Amino acid sequence: MTVGTHSGRRHDVPPTGTAGPGRAGPRGRRFDLLPYALVTPLALFILALALVPAGVTIVQSFFRVDELDPPTRFNGLANFRDLFADGAIRSSLVNTGLYVVIGVLLSTVLGIVMAVTLQRPFRGRSILIAVLILPWALPGVVEGLVWTGIWDANIGLLNSVLTSTHLISHYQVFLGQHRFLTILAIELVQVWQMTPLSTLLILASLQNIPSELYEAAVLDGCTPWQALRRITLPLARPGIAIAMVQAVIATLNVFDQPYVLNGSADTGASLTMQTYFISFQNLDFGEGYALSLLITVATLILSLGVVKLVYRQVEF
Amino acid sequence: MPRRRPWVRTLGILFIVLWSLVPLYWTLNTSLQTDAQISAKPAHYLPPSPTLSNYHALLSGAGEIPDTIRRSSINIVVECTAATIVTVVLATLAAYAFARMRFRGRNLLFYAVLATMAFPAYTTLIPLYRIMSLFGLVNTYTGIVLVYVSGFLPLATWILHSYMTSLPIAIEEAGQVDGASRMQILWRIVLPLAWPGIVSTAIITFLFAWAQFLFPLVLSSDLSTQPLTVAIAALQGRHTVPFGLLNAAGVLALAVPAVIAVALNRFIVNGLLSGSVK
Q1: ipTM of the predicted structure?
Q2: B48-81: per-residue pLDDT in tens?
Q3: Which CATH number fits domain A86-310: 2.40.160.10, 3.40.640.10, 1.10.3720.10, 3.40.50.150?
Q4: Considering only alpha carbons, which residue of chain B is nearest residue A264?
């Protein structure tokens, strides 16, 4: 949901300076306190609980901050060196890379498929949209529990179906043994949660495509497949870009699903989980700050990269 | 539009329905069985003798697990409701000022608010914990609600600002001509017109708050403030809690957002789209 600034027409230039009611109030040119009174609570929250903490993360990642062993003091890049020397962190870096690649690709492809399904009106479409957004609305932790019921080695739905259909001869362990399989199974749960929003974002782009384009395509003898590749996909690029950015942010910061489905095991631990372990189990806040900062910088760079690569201004 | 073969869309519709509902069905199915039935191989695809015993045990039973679930259910409702009310009130006031008034520093503040949305929420996890612990707000409703409000205010302000700038200004100007004060205009004219945007914002904020896990995990170490999400993860992490009971707790945690999402999906879709693409 943090993608508001990347596109837009109408509201992109935020406060447009509309001469609203009360601008020339009865008090004439006296200093106008009311707008400040209205925005002060927001400003205090943003300053105290967003900007200051973000600043603390940046500054203190270069400090030694250990609750059990004060005092705090500057130690340059030592936190970052410690991070890269730590095998568990390196392993989580690989895991997180896999989460991002699998999650962004799958949620985008599924989002396109679902958005194209919903592109034209049909009876029951609004009900289908209600069904579609359901997984988006649910807590990731509980979705982890829901999918435990599918992946579980003893009572899981997948094992039951696969053995009933004789695709496997006996129950298998899907989570926690083979790294790639574990990560795929965990990431599928996150994809389940993210795809509704991807679909809606892409669908919003599709609704802007003028139907004359498709009518012209019919006259030119286009097949549906060609129309999809030559008209729909290129013109959906703004929506696809925003959908991919939200997926990058979500996957790079994944926590709930691996934490619940696979615990702290190396086969699935993400970087955000390591931040949690370092800070709140080892109480090494300095190193935790450093890792937070690296994840944030990676998120910003990857998001910008996706926008540069995929986003195109579309004019009709 | 070139006619796709009708079965292509039918296939797409079928996929969306199965994809969204099968996992949820499976949790519901599990929650309605006894533990002996749950461990059958192959699994029962329908509950052989549907029983509410798991729900009964959670809601009216005695013992540590039912107590945990009941207390954390109260906590999550209190925290989400409080965070939603505070967020929507503050965002409405600020969005009105941003949309309709001129003042020094307006653009700077507006962009600062938007900029915070570009950062992943967990950037501020550790400092927020340390701030809350400095002020003795760990393990308090206040601490959790403050953190939620700070996290959800930017998006709420953005959605409401989009909504208010899209309202026709002529009615407000008429109100001004009639001598109404700006707060009267906000209360009597803007709020009644903006209520769909306010409802969208409230629903989205509530759902986000309900879904929180890592922040309350860090900010509440005991049952006095732990929300249902944290309690369920802790119970699952023990590996000894009966799966039927766990799934019944899961259904309780899913029911509230699921009902909201299905019943009010129009508001959610509009809110999300005005918050991200328009």
Answers
A1: 0.92
A2: 999 999 999 999 988 899 999 999 999 999 999 9
A3: 1.10.3720.10
A4: B237
